[in-house]
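Second attempt. The first submission of Transmembrane 9 superfamily member had a stray character pasted in from the spreadsheet, which I only caught after the job came back as garbage. Lesson logged: always re-copy from the clean sequence file. Corrected sequence (593 aa) follows.
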Amino acid sequence: MAFSTTATAISTVRSLSLFAIFLHVALLVSPAFASESDHKYQPDDPVTLWVNKVGPYNNPQETYNYYSLPFCHPAGNAAHKWGGLGEVLGGNELIDSQIDIKFQKNVAKTIVCELLLDEAKVKQFKDAIDQNYWLEFFMGFVGELHPDKTGDGNKQFLYTHKNITVQYNKDQIIHVNLTHENPKLLEAGRTLDMTYSVKWIPTNITFVRRFDVYLDYPFFEHQIHWFSIFNSFMMVIFLTGLVSMILMRTLRNDYAKYAREDDDLETLERDVSEESGWKLVHGDVFRPPHNLVILSAVVGTGAQLALLVLLVILLAIVGMLYVGRGAIVTTFIVCYALTSFISGYVSGGLYSRNGGKNWIKSMILTASLFPFMCFGIGFILNTIAIFYGSLAAIPFGTMVVVFIIWAFISFPLALLGTVVGRNWSGAPTNPCRVKTIPRPIPEKKWYLTPSVVSMMGGLLPFGSIFIEMYFVFTSFWNYKVYYVYGFMLLVFLILIVVTVCVTIVGTYFLLNAENYHWQWTSFFSAASTAVYVYLYSIYYYHVKTKMSGFFQTSFYFGYTLMFCLGLGILCGAVGYLGSTLFVRRIYRNIKCD
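This time the job returned cleanly.
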């Protein structure tokens, strides 16, 4: 049963940095059995106050153990509580503060300990104050809100009193408000009495509605958010109309010209002179692409990620995953492992249809490509976190758990999927026979080159999601709880449709330029969306945040790179698969020699 608070125990009484902490806390939804496990208490039941972490307020990932600052340490070996996989990956380490709190029992001002300040402790506190440190408490398991800031004076003070106000409804804790009072000047040689008090207040707010205090309705449901959805929807209508026009008008006319049979020599010569563009490359358009094993791996991985994102969003909508610390991360890891069959199936079928022979390499690359990319980035970030002594460093035991999930669930399922895909969907079914000698590709204008088509292809998909990227980035980097997964579902579906439409248009123009290297171009055309997202993240970092220091900068751009790699692979796979259906459709009805 739990509450979480984020607060600053430390205060700088300076012109811009005296911290006044007011924090409301809510509890997670879960079945009820007893006490902390189900959020139900009896009068005078002990309620554990857990301390978690401290760190600079402007650097969300730069967090340290609560007792890295010289606060009062509990006597003896304090109990530790380790949460689920996602919670540990989030850098949480809960330690029992051993502050005596009992359910519905008020506590007058009580001394926790006497804190003797020496030069070293004063320096630690002053450094923390200079960096605007915040701290986080948990009473059970919940989310967090963050401090308001005001300014006064130019000296450094330490808050010595924690005033805890708890609202409860019958046998359940609903909200917790923590304020810090009684600031004392930081001076070496002083002895400070660190105190706390607890006040219990009944409330009519139900347990089901307890989390509403964290949800920033005006921010997430602003009219701009609705307008962006409408704008993206109109873009979908425009693009689907454009693709329909290509399919129903341009191609229909091309079919009529190409299929015309006339023995008259003059008519035949006229038809030959009219043949140009995509029809002339029918003997090369199904030629296996270069680096087939890599293309198969990224397309298979992207198909898995698309299904994974859709599944996690639906689970978040149904299961309210946003109320649980680390629940989204845990769900993502477990669902990734369980959907690995999809990556193998899509990759194996694609590799087989294009005549691939190196099956061992294909299976291993498909199963390990994305996990090892994430591992490489994570290893660098973890090394930095260990060097800084931060809680963001992943414990060795957690790494072992993640590796076991991959090695014994994800990897075998991917291998199985590759075998099934090879045997069930690996038979070549190309509408046109591939010619022995490749056709030379004529020179075209610069804007019809694969590189330009690839970079331009990501603009409209990015335009359909960049408003949502602002809300997602703000939630992850600025302490807001993202809960509008219905919006995210709509935006994700719009992204899929826009990506497919844009890639089809790009593929059509490329083939019309008599360039049959469409496979990688269609992939990169869609994947370039991630490039624009990463460029947007650079803008967001400099304009929308106050992050600083090598640690936080590394984590910001490292996490963003990991996200953009996944997004690029996902969009690239969607674009490639959409273009494949388009190409097969347009060549199905022409005469192939």
